[in-house]
Amino acid sequence: MAIVLAPMEGLLDFVLRDILTRVGGIDRCVSEFIRVTNTLLPERAFVRVVPELLTGGCTLAGVPVRPQLLGSDPACLADNAGRVAGLGADGVDLNFGCPAKVVNRHGGGAALLEDPQLLYQIVSAVRRAVPAHQVVSAKMRLGFHDDRRAEECALALEAGGAGEIVVHARTRADAYRPPAYWGRIADIAAVVRTPLVANGEIWNVQDALACRAESGCHTLMLGRGIVSFPGLAHAIAHAGGAPAQGVEWHSLHPHIADFWHLVRATLERRQQAGRLKQWLNFLRRHYPQAQFAYDALKAVNDVAVIDAWVASLDGGLAW
């Protein structure tokens, strides 16, 4: 199965993309959304969210990153898609799945699933603006209030020219509550020819295999699951075969240290301690040892103290 790293606002930014693609097993990334309203954004606005555009559109591990745009105006999205495509990414992704109230209130994200005709207009306008050799992909949920129009929405995206559709197998009303309805992706696949990617509630290898069986998809998008278990892509690749390497807790020590060094170098000081604790909070879902690390740092905001803690990783003293 091919693995795509999900766009997750406030979590899967360029720092964590860098680290997780170093761990390996990820074939492609999609960036956090870049909000498009009524203006043509300057190039620096795209680079701020996707600094990988300065390195050939790839992370330092060589994994492509596709910028994602969020908005509701076809012409404005098309203008911005053409500009970001010109910066060298492998394509442009469109957000039709964000469940945030502030986004939906302004007609963006999952709210667009209420209007399949507008979905068509957006995708077709963007497709015309992006060079033919670059992919225009889209990420959708099963619907807004319910999933009755899921197939209609996917058909609209296909008719507009989407070359790939990621389906988060929940509605906006479902938010992130389990379960994800992977079987509904198979229903969509029965009516569209566009390649589909399955997303939602994939936390471990068993989930990945069940999702593949129920959805029929051989490409999966991972979000919180791979943040919690950075070796998940490797583990999926080795399911039923030789044991996966590089997924043990001790093998994460250098990656956690590198993550902290990148945070220190690129983020504002007031954000730094919180970002490390945020990742440790996810890691403790899979690794019992991460609980000790989280407990040691959860009340610490002094970056000098965390510097010393990270420096002790080589000797295993922090664990």
In brief:
By secondary structure, the chain is an alpha/beta fold. The protein contains 14 helices and eight strands.
Task: State the main characteristics.
single chain, 319 residues, alpha/beta, TIM Barrel, 2 domains, eight-stranded parallel β-barrel, 8 strands, 14% strand, globular
What does this structure look like?
With 319 residues, the protein is an alpha/beta fold. It folds into two domains: 2-237, TIM Barrel; 249-315, no CATH class. It has 14 helices and eight strands. It has helices at 14-23, 43-49, 74-85, 101-105, 116-129, 150-160, 183-189, 205-215, 224-228, 232-237, 253-266, 269-283, 288-297, 303-311; strands at 2-5, 28-35, 65-70, 91-96, 135-141, 164-168, 196-199, 219-222. The chain has an eight-stranded parallel barrel with strand order 1-2-3-4-5-6-7-8, surrounded by five helices. Helix 2 (43-49) links the parallel strand 2 and strand 3. The model has no long low-confidence stretch (mean pLDDT 94).
The count of helical stretches stands at 14
| Structural class determined from secondary elements | alpha/beta
> Which architecture of the largest domain does the CATH hierarchy give at level 2?
Alpha-Beta Barrel
Report the C-alpha radius of gyration, rounded: 20 Å
The CA-CA distance between the termini, in Å, is 34 Å
Oligomer: single chain
List the uncertain runs.
none
CATH superfamily of the largest domain: Aldolase class I
Q: Could you give the count of β-strands?
A: 8
How many separate domains make up the residues? 2
Strand order of the largest sheet: 1-2-3-4-5-6-7-8
Helicity, as a percent range: 40-55%
- Average predicted local confidence, pLDDT: 94
Shape, principal axes of CA atoms:
globular
CATH fold label of the largest domain: TIM Barrel
CATH class of the largest domain: Alpha Beta
User: What order do the helices and strands follow?
Assistant: EHEHEHEHHEHEHEHEHHHHHH
Q: Strand portion, in percent?
A: 5-15%
